[in-house]
Amino acid sequence: MRIASTETVDVVICGAGPVGLTAAVLLAARDVRVVVLEQHRGTSDEPKAISIDDESLRVFQQAGVVDRVLPVVVPGTGTRYYDQRGAVLFTARGPRPFRLGYPFKNPFAQPDLERVLASTLADARNVELRFGHRVTGFEHHADRVTVRAVNDLGEMAIDAAYVLGCDGGRSATRLLQDIEMTGRSYPDVWLVIDALADPHTQRFAMHHGDPKRPHVIVPGQGGRCRYEFRLFEGEGTSDQVPPFELIERLISPYRPITPDQIERALNYRFNAVVADQWMLGRSFLLGDAAHMMPPFAGQGLNSGIRDAANLVWKIAEVLAGRLDPALLASYELERRPHALATVRLSERLGRVVMTTSQRSADHRDTVIARALATTEGRTFFEEMRYRPTQRYTEGLLASTDRTDLVGIPIGQPLVFDTGTHTMCRLDEVLGAGWSLLGVEVAETDWAAATPLLRAIAVDPVQITIGELLPHTGRRVLIDVDGALVREFTEYTGRFVLIRPDHFVAAAWLPGDSADIATRVLSWTGFSAEGVLSNG
C-alpha cells in the first residue's frame, strides 16, 4: 500500500457519529483545523438515539447550528411512566421548563441529526469530513499524535495536536491504545422496532412497567415511532434477526403493521461500563468510547454531547495559547463523576421500571403511589430529581467562601440588553467565550477585576436584579420575567466568571478580586502584573 505524506492539523476526530460531529461543529465555530475520520461510507441510517435534552440543544446554539437542528426535533414534554396495569403513575417534565432556553427532553431521529451536522460541516472551510477512512494506529509524541488510517487508495498519516475518540462502543481509539472498560454487560435481550406510519402523536416517551412484558414507546416526527420490548427465553438472542411474526404480535396492542412499515428491527443487549482512563497523552475518549449505559434514562447521546461541550473549548483555548495544556486533565476530572452517576441511574431505572418480577412491580407501584400523595414525593418524581445533576467539585474552579456557587451551569434566561436595547437570551449576549458578570456590584469594585478582564478579553457585564438601573458605561442586563432574578439572586454583590461551557468557574465578593485573579490567571500561564503591564 502507498503511504501518503504526513499532513498536519489541529485536531483529528475519530468517528462521525453525533458526538464526533458535535465536537467538529464546536471546533469549527472556534476556527480550529479539524479532520474527521469515519470508517463507514456516510452518516448512519440507523436511528439509534431518540432523545435529546435541552442541554444538548444549547450546545448546538453555541456552535451556531441550532436553527438547523430544531427542524428535526419534536419539542417534547417529558416522560410518562405507567404501572403494571397500564395506569399512569406520573409524568416527569423536569424541574424548570425552558431554563436552558429549550424544551427539557425531545424525541428525534439520529440519522436526521447526523445528516444536518454533516451538511453543516461540508460548508466549513476549516473542517474536512473523510468517510471510508478506517483508523489503524496511533503514535504518541511530546507535541503531537500521529494518526494512521487506511482508505481505498492506501495508507495515510496525519499529525494532530490532539485526537478525539468519538468512535462508539467498539472504539478503535480506545482498543488500539489498550484502554480497558470497567462495569458489566447485561444478559437481557430487548427488541427495538422503529416503525413508520404510526398513529402515536404524543410528544412524550412512555415507559410501561408491566413485568409480563416491560416496554417503551417513543413517538417521533412524521409518523415515526420507537418501540422497545423485553424478550424472554426462546424469543430470540442479540445476534438474531427478529422474525416479523414476533414483531407483529408484540406491537399488535397498539397498531397493525406490515413489513414495509418497519424502518429498523433488531435484538440487542446493553452495557453499563466506563473507560478506565479518558485521556492518554494527547488523545481523549468521548461518548460511547468513554462510557456506555442502559437506554432507560435516554442519556447515552446527551452524555456524549456533554463530553464534547466540556472538552472542546479547552482544547481551542490551549491551541490559542490562552490556557495551560496541563489543564486538559480537568476533562476527565469534571466529567467522569457525572457520567458514572448517569450510568448507575440508567441501571436503577432498568431494575425498577423494567422489572420482570411481579413482587418488585407490586412494591414499586405501591411505593411510588404513596410518594406521589406527598408534595415532596410528587416533586421528586415529576421534576426528575432522581437524575444526577451536573456539579463539578474539582477542575477549573475558584472560590473563596461559597463553594456551592461554583461548578454549576448557569441558565439561559430572557434578558433586556442595554447594549443593544433588545430582549434576547443570555447566551446571545455572552457569546461563546469567557464572561465576567458583576451582580449588583458597585462601580468602584470593577477596578480590581481589570487583570481578569484583560486576560480573558471580554467586556464586563453588569446584572441588575432589582428595580434600579445603575449609572454605568457598561452593558447592563435587566430581568424581564423573573428568570434572571432566579439565576443570580444567590450571587448578589459578587462577581461571577462564566466559562465558555456556561459553568460558573468562580464567584467572589469584590474584596477577594486580587486572590481570585491570581488563581484564575494561573490557568493561563499569565500573572496579574504581566497582564497589566501588557495592557
Record keyword descriptors for this entry.
535 residues, alpha/beta, FAD/NAD(P)-binding domain, D-Amino Acid Oxidase, Chain A, domain 2, Glutaredoxin, 3 domains, 8-stranded mixed β-sheet, 15 helices, 26% strand, globular
Concise overview:
The protein folds into three domains: 7-66 and 108-181 and 273-355, FAD/NAD(P)-binding domain (3-Layer(bba) Sandwich); 74-103 and 187-269 and 357-390, D-Amino Acid Oxidase, Chain A, domain 2 (2-Layer Sandwich); 398-533, Glutaredoxin, CATH 3.40.30. The model has no long low-confidence stretch (mean pLDDT 94).
Describe this structure in words.
The chain has 535 residues and is an alpha/beta fold. The chain has 15 helices and 28 strands. Strands 1, 2, 7, 8, 9, 10, 18 and 19 form an eight-stranded mixed β-sheet that branches. It has an eight-stranded mixed β-sheet with strand order 21-28-27-24-25-26-22-23. A seven-stranded mixed β-sheet has the order 5-4-13-14-15-12-16, sandwiched between helices. The protein is globular and about 75 Å long. The model has no long low-confidence stretch (mean pLDDT 94).
Task: Summarize the helices and strands and which ones pair or pack.
Layout: E1 7-14, H1 18-29, E2 34-38, E3 51-53, H2 54-62, H3 66-69, E4 79-82, E5 88-92, E6 105-107, H4 110-122, E7 127-131, E8 134-140, E9 145-151, E10 154-165, H5 172-175, E11 181-185, E12 190-195, E13 205-208, E14 215-219, E15 225-230, H6 244-251, E16 262-268, E17 271-275, E18 279-280, E19 283-285, E20 291-292, H7 300-319, H8 330-353, H9 358-372, H10 375-382, E21 398-399, E22 414-417, E23 422-425, H11 426-430, E24 435-439, H12 450-456, E25 461-464, E26 475-479, H13 483-488, E27 494-498, E28 504-508, H14 513-524, H15 528-533
Parallel strand pairs: 1-2, 1-10, 2-7, 4-13, 10-19, 21-28, 24-25, 25-26
Antiparallel strand pairs: 3-6, 4-5, 8-9, 9-10, 11-17, 12-15, 12-16, 13-14, 14-15, 17-20, 18-19, 22-23, 22-26, 24-27, 27-28
